[in-house]
Amino acid sequence: MSELKNDCLIKSLMKEPTTRTPVWIMRQAGRHLPEYRDLRSQAGDFMSLCQNPKLACEIAMQPLRRYKLDAAILFSDILTIPDAMGLGLHFVEGEGPKFRKPLRTERDVESLSVINSKVDLSYVLEAVSLMRKELDGAVPLIGFSGSPWTLAAYMIEGHSSRDFSRTKTWLYKHPEILHQLLQKLTLSLIDYLNAQICSGAQVVQIFDTWGGILSHEAYEKFSLAYIREIIANLISRYDDREVPVVLFTKSGGNWLEEIASSGCNAISLDWTVSLREARRRVGANVALQGNMDPAVLRSNPESIESEVQRILDSYGSGSGHVFNLGHGITPDIDPRNVEVFVEAVHRYSGA
Amino acid sequence: MSELKNDCLIKSLMKEPTTRTPVWIMRQAGRHLPEYRDLRSQAGDFMSLCQNPKLACEIAMQPLRRYKLDAAILFSDILTIPDAMGLGLHFVEGEGPKFRKPLRTERDVESLSVINSKVDLSYVLEAVSLMRKELDGAVPLIGFSGSPWTLAAYMIEGHSSRDFSRTKTWLYKHPEILHQLLQKLTLSLIDYLNAQICSGAQVVQIFDTWGGILSHEAYEKFSLAYIREIIANLISRYDDREVPVVLFTKSGGNWLEEIASSGCNAISLDWTVSLREARRRVGANVALQGNMDPAVLRSNPESIESEVQRILDSYGSGSGHVFNLGHGITPDIDPRNVEVFVEAVHRYSGA
Lengths: 351, 351
Fold this sequence. Notes:
The structure is a homodimer. Chain A is α/β, with parallel strands linked by helices.
């Protein structure tokens, strides 16, 4: 593997000093880019793109050609594991992910097998290898998956939901079945994220997209406990380098202390938390990633630059901050505003 | 007016000692009750019920006949002010509130007038008077409205939304227009809540349902600043009694200190916050209301009782706790489970 030319992201995630604040964007490869929309209209649906390593690699490179980003991220979905378990992941325009065979009974859970990534998700691992080769050390590559709780919530509902009422009914009425499911997902995630690392992912991020709908106590028991188990079982050094783990619990601002104690190296924050406050609470132990409201990118260069400055000031000086949005970029954003955003982070943070 | 026989709620909101923890339920009058569904199927749509003081009064009484609740709440909607401003509030089954004439331009905002509740919302004030009479001092009556930010968000979108993108575009691109709107709403809310108090509301609750979608800084500027102004201008004593103000910012757990400094007497909390933690942070200054996940009511008596106990323990001993759900009860809940819930709060908290 070639030497990493820009290790700003990894250093910041490990709380080591950098010359400026690194920046990347959740969902940086995707629908806001016209070149992605072109390629997708030729090639078919979203899952066909993910499952074609060459196309996935090309898509992961697209944002790096436009913007001076400090990281690439695997082009894939957070729900590949349940798809590999046979639930039939597909996407309906404007409605998000859906499963053809959602979990309905205890027997559905019992019949699921822990995945073997090399066999069941080889297309992801191939994509990771190709991306590493294509990047040629320019910037690090981030691998990822959804958290066990987030996967379980989609698997039980069959789709996204305002209140995940089926899943919560399991949680309060049949917690033992839910725990059985979460345990299988945890073992699958350990296998999957380690396989991504061995294929070339230099950072891994766990997306706990729906952790924030739980009570404090339920979050600990049904989400964070399993994430802890995963992190404890991940390869922490590979190819002579630390492999930092980033944990993103959307709407998890109430639980930063617990999240910081999960073993992760960095917490990715949504925009509702002030970075100053988050740093005061947990900054001694973990790096912080985030956290501009994606809606700011809908405004104008002046507002974008002033929000970037405000957020950099709010973190303050010293190492340990990775700039990002507080959630994925939305498809309606003008790439010119993204360019303003990325350049503002670099300009105001130092280099 | 007759003497208040059960003043447990008001005492707890003022942090005075009570013999047990009072309990009421957000949306206690409404679709989960078969007698409400009967009445509604005879009488027409939701707004017709709200606008008919006699029916509204009857509906507000229904849950009190079933459950030993410590408060009644005005049967109305959080969006009556924009309706009175001419936006045309109506409800589409399964889709929530909608406005026929959402705000689209600066001129739309300029042409809005601050409401005069006695003229524009007389049906609400009549309903409040009737309910007070009907209650005959059994329990206190809670009045309410949505917060300026929450009203503005619905008025600009025209309906509920996952990310309120139009509203946020105004916020980041045209903040001055949004401030103009928020100021008109603030003056209207002061008039409206004071009129409710003069008509008989003994507690008022401000529902900041969408405050939690903002960044910390934007929440301060676009939501909390206006709520502060409202609270400072509310009648604090009426009919020889304090009139406590409860503030509910859904997903506002990150900002408890700021919320507590708004002048409110109590903070209503969603279920993502631990009461122990919230009390440690702000319990010296304000009472706390909440915060069981409404999903627990979908389970069984054992789980409901154990969650009630856990939440009571989490608050701990001493005054200043009002039990409630962390959000409105959902229409699918079996009233037998609600009965278990209310009785468990009373039994485990003392009397």
